[in-house]
């Protein structure tokens, strides 16, 4: 196994708002790879300069970073320049998928369904936004994940405060119409879609705490959807990944209304790999345990 992959850096931690989650993801991946006999080592870009990877002879990188500085194309670009193959999407797809606004524009241009939206600024006409999108409205930073800085606005008077919170995380803030329905997540591994996961959070509030630190959220995998409907959604997700240029592995989040209409929310190119994470859960149903999943992702590491 050591000869197969060479010296592997597991990149985790980083300096984004999602550092805490990345530390958990990376620790799990590192343990799995080491247990499988891979010559894997921890590497935190917040504590060590990336150029050390080349100096110390690393031959592959498993990216377990989340958010900006790790999932947005910057680390991918550095690894490209050093000639070190890495897991997940390349520079363009990583940068594009991290940008919720531009992701939506690409999806819409490809005829893929996504909720209506508006970009918020300090001088936005808050009443006009409410009139256009209705209530409730989700407000979130364009370049953050894990529900960081996100607010569900249920009254018009809350909109500006929601923008102010999101603006602490990002200069670009997006407001999105609320779509009522089942919350689903759809992982993929290389060119195959994995089983859908249905998320049932307390009060419908799938926030940071419920994602990572409580056992109150229920996850159904298999999702309970009819096989034909699940297959249609999986095909849509593979298309939404292709038009963004994604590769390797990832996870799309979506809402399915009661009358069967899907709405794509966002694409994650470096999903969580914690004990509460959804890709490992889906992979298990597909017959891949956590270690096998990590090895398959690592096998797909590449340049360009």
Structural write-up:
- One of its GO terms (molecular function) is D-alanine-D-alanine ligase activity.
- Keywords: ATP-binding, Cell shape, Cell wall biogenesis/degradation, Cytoplasm, Ligase, Magnesium, Manganese, Metal-binding, Nucleotide-binding, Peptidoglycan synthesis.
- It is a single chain.
- Helix content is 36%, strand content 21%.
- By secondary structure, it is α+β, with helices and mostly antiparallel strands.
- Strands 8, 9, 10, 11, 12 and 13 form a six-stranded antiparallel beta sheet that branches. A four-stranded antiparallel beta sheet has the order 4-7-5-6.
- Helix 2 (19-35) crosses helix 12.
- The model has no long low-confidence stretch (mean pLDDT 94).
**Under CATH, the topology of the largest domain is which?**
D-amino Acid Aminotransferase, Chain A, domain 1
Distance between the termini: 24 Å
How many strand units? 13
Overall tally of domains: 3
Pfam family, one: Dala_Dala_lig_N
Family: Belongs to the D-alanine--D-alanine ligase family.
Domain ATP-grasp: 104-299
Subcellular location: Cytoplasm
List its traits.
single chain, 304 residues, alpha+beta, Rossmann fold, D-amino Acid Aminotransferase, Chain A, domain 1, Dna Ligase, domain 1, 3 domains, 6-stranded antiparallel β-sheet, 4-stranded antiparallel β-sheet, EC 6.3.2.4
Helices and strands, with pairings:
Layout: H1 2-5, E1 7-11, H2 19-35, E2 39-43, H3 52-55, E3 60-63, H4 74-82, H5 91-98, H6 100-109, E4 117-120, H7 126-133, E5 137-141, E6 151-153, H8 159-167, E7 173-177, E8 182-189, E9 192-193, E10 197-200, H9 208-212, E11 218-220, H10 227-244, E12 249-256, E13 262-268, H11 278-285, H12 290-299
Parallel strand pairs: 1-2, 1-3
Antiparallel strand pairs: 4-7, 5-6, 5-7, 8-9, 8-10, 8-12, 10-11, 12-13
